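pinned: reference chain
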Amino acid sequence: HFLFFALNDRPRTFAFVMGVPAGVFAFLMLRVAWDHVTQLLPKGLAAWVAVAVFGALGLTGAAVLPAVGLSTFDMFVAVPLALAYLLVLRAVIARSTGRQWQGWQLVIAGAVAGLAGGLKLTVLPFAAAIGVMLLLVLGLRAALLAGVAMVAGFLLGFAPFAWQLWQAFGNPMFPHFNQVFRSPDWFYQHFADLRFVPRTTLQAIFYPFWWLKPSSGLVSELQLRDPRLAIAYIAWIAVAVMLLRRPRAAGNRAAVLALGVLALCYAAWAKQFGIYRYLVFPEALGAIVVMLAFVMVRRARQRTSLGVFALVASIAIAVTIHPNWGHGPHGRRLLEADPLPIQPAAMVVTVDSTPMAYLVTLMPQDVRVLGLSTNLVQPGQKHGLDRRITAAIAEHVGAFWSLSDVGTTDTARDGVLAAYGLAVGGACVVVHTSLEPAGHRICQVRKLN
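pinned: its structure tokens
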């Protein structure tokens, strides 16, 4: 919000600032790749080639690349996860080489992983995966040290927001886990988006192979195709077999860390979400595992192996279909829009679930906006949020406006409005914006009674 108002006239500067987390993430994951590789290869040309190919593969996937500059926060929280993994990896390498791991590294790793989970709960399972593998690879003392820091980091990131939710709704995770907290503003049940979770156990186990062909509605609303995690699946098995055959080889502990974190991340993600956009960190880590599979071959076959790695990466990059979550060409301003007809002290109601909240920034500050048909509220539902909306509409004495997508039919719009005692009572205009060239329809609305 601050960046929007500060840099609306400087869209390229805004884009650069929003892209900084992606740059930091890329740097950290390249460091992770380097630390893994140099456990297996001398610090020479072969190591540099392996890391470069990893960068091309791991930083261009259908989760990572579309997240660059995105306001959904997925890239932002991937940065502390990458940092946490890097610090844990270095502690594991220190143990493998006979050195003592540093306690401060694990404290920072736990704190930043917990902070990531607190800032966006969808990556909390990934933070937990790092913690579990830290316990298995470094032991109880290291896990306790990082675990306490992880809890502190989580509370730092989540507690302020949780307090606001508690004050507003009586549920610090509203609307999630409402069967526990029983807020009167929602049904006494857990709210979860299960549209994209695997449909069967077989699909859950082999889900990445479903993404080898273009699809929409499977793990994303938009069309995508990405073979990276399917390749990582095969590479995971190959690395595991090589670890079993050479249990005392250099770099084994580090490889076990990568395999364990990736497997746990995937299992938790498939169980809870199935939303591909959340896979920024696991997708890049999957490319690490692919790299390990090609680097762990016998030294006599190293050149051939790296060549095959580059070929596999090139094919994966070529066939990937990236979903576009709103990236577009730069204009003179970050957001350009036709003038809104909405006057001060009015009430605006949205009547479909099309993303339109960005228009609120263009409205007078005293305008109140209510969503009548969203992923949380639907006409006819009887819960506290519905009652709050009904009361707010009844108490409002100023002008009303409805806001909808141009593709929403008059029948659908009028049905939603009627459910709350409203009807179109005047002219409608279409407001075009640089984010939605087709525009949004704004109509004057009146109370039925």
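why pinned: The CA atoms of residues 239 and 292 lie 7 Å apart. The radius of gyration is 25 Å.
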